[in-house]
Amino acid sequence: MRHVISILMENESGALSRVAGLFSARGYNIESLTVAPTEDESLSRMTLVTRGDEAIIEQITKQLNKLIEVVKLVDLSEGSHIEREMMLIKVKAERAHREEVMRLTDIFRGTVIDVTDTSFIIEMTGKSSKLDAFVRAVHEELVVEVVRSGPSGIARGAKGLTL
Amino acid sequence: MELSGAEIVIQSLKDEGVEHVFGYPGGAVLHIYDAIFQQDAVKHILVRHEQGATHAADGYARSTGKPGVALVTSGPGATNAVTGIATAYMDSIPMVVLTGQVPSPFIGSDAFQEVDTVGITRPCVKHNFLIKDVRDIAKTFRKAFYIATSGRPGPVVIDIPKDITDPNIKIPYEYPKKVRLRSYSPVSKGHLGQIKRAVDRMLAARRPVFYTGGGVVLDNADEQLTELVRTLDFPITSTLMGLGAYPGSDKQFLGMLGMHGTYEANMAMHETDVLIAIGARFDDRVTGQIAQFCPNAEIIHVDIDPSSISKNVRVDIPIVGPVKSVLKDMLKVVSEHKKRPDEEALKQWWAQIKRWRGTQCLKYDEKSSRIKPQFAVETLHRVTRGDAFVASDVGQHQMFAAQFYPFDKPRRWINSGGLGTMGFGLPAAIGIQIAHPGAEVAVVTGEASIQMCIQELATCKQHDLPIKIMLLNNGYMGMVRQWQEFFYDGRYSHSYVEALPDFVKLAESYGHVGMKIERPEDLEGAMKEAFSLKDRLVFMDVIIDPTENVYPMIEAGKGHHEMYLPPESELV
Ligand SMILES: Cc1cc2nc3c(=O)[nH]c(=O)nc-3n(C[C@H](O)[C@H](O)[C@H](O)COP(=O)(O)OP(=O)(O)OC[C@H]3O[C@@H](n4cnc5c(N)ncnc54)[C@H](O)[C@@H]3O)c2cc1C
Ligand SMILES: Cc1ncc(C[n+]2csc(CCOP(=O)(O)OP(=O)(O)O)c2C)c(N)n1
Ligand SMILES: [Mg+2]
To answer: How many Å lie between the alpha carbon of A95 and the closest alpha carbon of chain B?
Structure first.
């Protein structure tokens, strides 16, 4: 099953490689991983998407917790949560296709943020599945490049993953 | 007090109570070596290879419970140390390894003797640090020692760039009194509700067995364990790493379990209804095939590391906490409990165990005209009155030592279990002897293993360490040969150790006493003589039967009840 694990950790240079190293050393898979500092600059927040059966996910969370620099973590998939991913997508937009791309962008609530005679860059956020759908909707030949952040997640409700 | 970085390194060690450092110098640590030269509170033991430094620090730690400390230079110094670091990591040994690094401005430039030590050691340390500022040395040391020794212990590496130890830059020094890491707080007590549940199950058990491991030794909980086991009158078996935590010669002790464990221990595991696992990690050498492991048991597991619990085997009653404190709580709960163990059921259980013991699974040919390794270890046990520190290398000799030297005290049996590092024995013995100057320290080794760190004989000479080496010389990588005999139709591919040196002359050339012993009747006398030489290292080259195998044996991936037994045993 797919799990979204949110990790609060010390914002130190080695921390990220410890997490990545743990996954490769123990043969767990990482689907995506995003990381950035939080409002407290001594901490960073990571969202990690992985897959595995219950026993593997249990080991993954235990092993992550064991890393000295991991302060706290939560498996967001255990409760109700929100996931958002950001995508920057560059598409060919010659005269014949400009209208169609614009319309699709509107439907998906994206924004065109760069325009040339022959191309657009579109910014879009949402669930990963929505971004997938957009990429599928745009004609394959029109896609020049896709840059995705990987999902970030947060639990619903008043409680937060804080110190 | 104003100190340079190099002086802070040494002063921090002093403030940690470190008395000995095992090390080897080089460019990146020259400032530190200069600071060592100018004091004598921290004693430096010069080894002959950095692997030796880490194993010696490790042996020091295993035999005392105090963290071992090693100091090596950058690049090849650090890479040579890696085997020793990984060895300590696999067996959860508290150790702090200081590695020199190229000056900070050169990091990343492929500078002379630069390696990414933090990167290379990351997967085999509990934690590691790269110090970037001289003002961080003292607090990093404080954290490193705390992390290495608390919770589930393990090695910590501190990588120190040369410029950080510059003797010309002095700063005020103060060693932090407290250490607090918001991201690291090992549990200090087990959950009382879980402990009560566990005790309820234990008292209702009909065929209980204790399965204990290295965690009991690491937490110095031998007394509490012994008291609990005796109070309940349950049988107990131990892993290779837990030997000595419960007296090996006691009647409730079934011997070691697992691949080379006794028939009675493994059968008890197979038949038990309540397994009480304490400070043991369900290693594959112990469990064999998971699907057949303890098929009828409810499993209670006490471990300080949550990731050890239900890692390989699903546990019914997990208790996360330090062994000692949990055992104390268990003793209290047992003493206040209305119920007593089921005497009738236990009587039957012990009767069954007695039948299993009748198999005589450790029997060997005692009338052989050749020295049998089992006989050699028994002789060592007699001559040292069962009270020596025994360091071992890896192979058949290691198993014979574990099976035939019943350890009655913890921290006496020093061996590499998890990584199985050949070459461990001799340098580990150096650490043990340094920590226990008057004690009898023996190394049980093989002719292949001993050659992996043989250069440390010079260290023993330099530091006057009267270690007694018992080389069980079978001319083979016996353990490899045994597998080839059993599983490869006797195709002995590269397991014959040709071109052996004359070990007597070799020992003598290092300035030690060498002995060659070939006949069973000469062994005890020779060994007594060796141990009577209180201030000399004696190297006993004991020529043993090259065909001897370690029994019992469970083939990898088989169940506990499927054992090869020795030809001499009653069942064969
Ligand atoms: C050639 C060879 C053959 C071998 N054959 C066998 C064999 O037949 N039988 C056998 O048993 N082994 C054998 N081994 C050793 C085996 O590989 C493992 O090293 C060993 O079984 C592990 O022992 P352990 O479970 O006690 O774990 P250890 O490695 O000693 O781990 C200790 C456990 O205790 C926990 N712990 C640590 N501190 C505390 C604390 N304060 N409180 C609570 N818990 C704590 C840790 O988290 C860990 O889970 C062999 C090794 C070699 C090289
Ligand atoms: C560094 C290292 N290399 C290889 C091995 C694999 N290995 C395990 S036991 C063994 C043979 C040991 O031979 P010896 O020291 O003579 O001991 P014996 O088994 O003969 O008692 C080998 C090669 C190992 N454990 N460690
Ligand atoms: Mg041999």
So the answer is: 50
